[in-house]
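User: Before I run my own analysis I want an independent prediction to cross-check against. Here's the chain; please return only the structure tokens and, at the end, one sentence I can use as a sanity check.
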Amino acid sequence: MYIVTKVARLFAFVILFALSACGGGGGDGGAGGAVLSVSTNNLTFSASNTYSSTPAPQTVVASLSGGSGVVYMSVFGSGAAIESTNFTITGDTTGEASISVRAPSTLGVGTYTGTVTVEGCTDVNCTSQITGSPQTINVTYTVAGITAAPAAVDFSVGEGQTPSAKNVTLTAASGSQAWTSSITYDSGTSGWLSVPASGASLPATVAFNASSMPAGIYRAHVTFNSTNGSTQVVPVALNVSSSGVTFVSPYVGTTNVSNDVIIRGWGFTGATQVQFGATPASAFSVVNDSEVHATYPALAAGTYPVTVDTLPTRANLVVVDAPAFSYAAINRTANAKALHNLIYDAERKAVYLLDVDWMGGTDRIERYRFSAGSWTSDTPISFGGSLNLNTGIALSPDGTEIVKANYYQMGHISTATFTTTANISAVPDLGIPTLSSISMANDGSIIGNATNQDGWEGYYRYDVLNRAFFKTSTPAGFINPINRHTIARSADGSRILIMPLPLSSAPNYWYYYRSSDSTFVATALQTLNIYGRLSSVSVSRNGSRSIIDNVVYDDSFSALGTLLPSWNDSDVVIISPEGANAYIYIKNTGVVHKYDLTSAIGGVFAEVGTGTAVPDAPGDGILMAISPDGGSLIIAGTERVIVMAAP
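Assistant: Structure tokens:
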């Protein structure tokens, strides 16, 4: 008979079969004479269009015959078609591999393939395979119908402006088909959207035009029907904002230090003056109607309203003294689990941690504040709910709120009172989603990924001021890293760097979200991310330098050089705000190493000094942050928060 246990191997489970002597020696050590077979070597899946339900999983039976001893079995899948493989023991000599394919909405129209490999081995490292091993199961998955690219249209303009047209390309899985369209208005005033009513053939480029409207949010969806009965639905949103200044990023400056900021809002075209309080900007340039780049001079500590001409403003530049923290090891509150986010709030000299209970218990946000020369902890804020695999928190561009993705809603927490002020449901706009990792753009947009119960998965934008969700479109070839939480931002919120999906046997491209025009941009950088392991990523204040693990990249993601020592999964890296230095905390040694990033010799950046020992261990799951002036490091783990001067 067989018994089973599971251990990790590559991208799959390894299943251990222990054969009792069934006529013949060998005991439990050799699997002598065992033969592996499967019920089929080919599987076919199909969906009628991208809005169809995901096809049901299909089962392949794996059988062992003959021999005795121990057989180790692994079942793993690869290729765009395959979502997951699960293996279950069903009898003394059989097991079932359940193969699931991805939701059709995540792939689009087309034919996709994959392979499932079933191996039977005589040792746990699979250096020797039994007869009939490996068995390959070929998977073919066809998504029929028409597809639209982009899959969603999002207009954002200022009041009184007419948005530029946006094009959607319709394509068919096969043949040239006639098509018709219809518009359904979901909220707000109707009649603001126009789309051609029909076309004679596919592919076709369809212009979406929106009218000038009063400030508000307007939603609609366009349904395209082709002559073969296929349907494609494109959601459309029109977000019209009142003129004025909404945010300045970064909103915290250091006393007597001049620096650059990005000002966001609407109505900036033709602007002739930018001021910080009563002090004019040293320099400024108008990028577009919603973005101004400016330099403020050295200022005393205080709060400075940020104005552009005479437009109304809600944005303030807060100038604070650089912190002079003494070394501190702060014991975290009890029952720490999986640390997902670390945020340093320079205005309040506070540290926020997101501690996640993966098994559907209670997530919590912890806060530690520096006051009167010492660190104190506030009562954590708890968030119950369903499974939160990779949720996240972000600080709003003005520092007034911590925002938390929590299953199907976005929680707002006041930084002034450290209390929850609102929980905004994503269900009306995203279905019934599971919201995952998030990051904050400088216009007040949360960029996050999600999947919903209808099979949709992708990126969304959440407006923290209007408290509304919008589906966004990603470029062709972009693989959504659903349920991953390595997305890192520059301090000025101009770009959000996104790690590729870590479920592939081949390298994938990194992307970043460009806040200026709300688009996802492909980089030239590819990495192979091992399943179950996340890269340590850090981005400089303005995005001109990035570090991924121990490699430094410029703003075009060309490698500039490496940092030594070699990289381990438990180590963590941070780049200084101006991008001139980098710091790596090595968990195994408890040492922080500093590197000079101004030049590389032979492709390696020089270490400054020999390292600084950290007296106390932070624990596991380590994250690191740096103060805006670059003078203080915060290192957090499951056991404690370390605050220290940057070497």
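Sanity check: The chain has four domains: 6-143, 146-241, 250-314, 328-645.
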